[in-house]
Write a sequence for this structure.
């Protein structure tokens, strides 16, 4: 990111202000932060926020005085459970306290309804990768295009729209689109849209490559061809969170489901979690190497930030 000690020192008051606000958000005492908590805030969340602010400034500079500036859509591509939702939550909060109007979306919000998922299963008998939500093909792409297009036009005061949300706890953990009466509302003018998902930016590969990973992935790979126009082309800046081993996803997902059950919501059992995650692993194995080496589909190096994290979801810091 090019952040040196000198550059940070020049704006140290801002960094301390952001850190103080994050402590309040996460209900932590800023005088007694652990080393991992300090790393999470000052080597991860706040630097990413500073990077996003810079991307917003670059985006705004492309427009003339008096022109309406559409919100910058920043994509967060990261495997399930690695903390991207928490990162987006922290960034959204920092944008709001610094006077930015932001909106958050997940690719989960565009999963097919329970009825649509049932139809997908019927259309792909025997393909375990398409039995449940998750892989390419299980999303309502026209709905996502409609939503993202509307969000990028939210440039004036008084303009409002509701953001779709998905209920993962419905149907015993199989999920369904939440009732529209529960969707949050956002109001223009929007500065930034934070869009996160486990497979954002995945590029279709040659058939022989995906078949070597899992023959069932061939149909998923074909479905993926439509995703650039539905998702990736809207994203002008990218943050990719890199993990060392996709098998971490199982443990992270298990932790999330246990938390859901402890909160009184019907989550998946341990065995169901293992089965659920197994349906994502072929896609991780096939698409993550290209994502990490080439960047997301349609990304530009000047608008791409790659962050590597460890099993504890903390950034791996360069020396």
């Amino acid at each position: 990111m090019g952040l040196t000690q000198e550059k940070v020192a020049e704006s140290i008051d801002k960094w301390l202000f952001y850190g103080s606000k994050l402590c309040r958000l996460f209900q932590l005492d800023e005088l007694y932060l652990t080393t991992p908590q300090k790393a999470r805030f000052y080597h991860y969340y706040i630097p990413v926020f500073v990077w996003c602010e810079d991307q917003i400034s670059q985006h705004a500079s492309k427009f003339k005085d008096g022109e309406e500036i559409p919100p910058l859509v920043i994509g967060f591509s990261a495997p399930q459970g690695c903390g991207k939702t928490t990162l987006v939550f922290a960034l959204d909060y920092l944008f709001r306290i610094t006077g930015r109007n932001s909106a958050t979306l997940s690719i989960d919000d565009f999963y097919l309804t329970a009825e649509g998922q049932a139809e997908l299963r019927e259309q792909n008998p025997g393909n375990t990768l398409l039995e449940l939500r998750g892989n390419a093909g299980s999303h309502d792409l026209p709905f996502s295009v409609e939503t993202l297009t509307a969000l990028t036009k939210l440039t004036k005061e008084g303009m409002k729209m509701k953001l779709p949300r998905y209920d993962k706890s419905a149907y015993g953990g199989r999920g369904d689109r939440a009732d529209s009466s529960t969707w949050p509302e956002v109001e223009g003018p929007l500065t930034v849209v934070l869009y996160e998902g486990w497979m954002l930016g995945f590029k279709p590969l040659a058939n022989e490559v995906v078949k070597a990973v899992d023959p069932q992935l061939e149909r998923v790979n074909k479905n993926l061809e439509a995703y650039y126009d539905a998702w990736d082309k809207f994203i002008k800046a990218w943050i990719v969170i890199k993990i060392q081993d996709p098998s971490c996803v199982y443990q992270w997902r298990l932790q999330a489901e246990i938390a859901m059950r402890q909160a009184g919501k019907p989550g998946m059992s341990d065995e169901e979690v293992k089965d659920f995650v197994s349906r994502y692993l072929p896609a991780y194995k096939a698409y993550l190497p290209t994502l990490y080496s080439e960047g997301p589909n349609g990304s530009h190096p000047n608008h791409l930030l790659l962050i590597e994290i460890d099993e504890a979801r903390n950034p791996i810091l360069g020396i």
Summary: The mean pLDDT is 90. The chain has one domain: 67-309.
